[in-house]
Amino acid sequence: MALHSFTLAQLARALGMSVEDVRFYRDGGLLPPPKRQRTRTGDFSFQVEHLERLRFIQRALAYGFTLENIASFVDERGW
Fold first, then answer.
1. Angle at 60 (CA atoms; ends 65, 46), nearest 5 degrees
2. CA–CA distance, 42 with 35 (Å, rounded to integer)
3. Which pTM value belongs to this model?
4. Which of 23, 31, 68, 74 could form a disulfide with 79 if both were Cys (CB 3.0 to 4.6 A apart)?
């Protein structure tokens, strides 16, 4: 599988959410921090794992789980 990286805006767009939503989950500890790219600029990039985690969060919210529930789920899974 090819490695994909996303900017914050690309990640948000791929999931149909706002940049602020992605930041909220990242700042709340539900989404791990992005990885620093090995480039001259040292920009940060989000990976497929971030996309999958956010999809999981979206599904869990749709099923009525709270953010507290979701935090315990992702901790148990070792994400």
1. 130
2. 10
3. 0.81
4. 74
Q: Which CATH class is domain 5-76?
A: mainly alpha
Chain segment 23-79, per-residue pLDDT in tens: 999 999 899 888 876 655 556 789 999 999 999 999 999 999 999 999 998 876 555
- SS3 (DSSP) at 65: coil
30: tokens are: 């539900």
Provide, for the chain, the percentages of residues in helix, strand and coil under a 3-state DSSP scheme, each rounded to the nearest 5: 55, 10, 35
Instruction: Tell me how far apart the alpha carbons of residues 1 and 18 are, in angstroms, rounded to a whole number.
Output: 27
- SS3 state at 11: helix
Structure tokens at 22: 């992605």
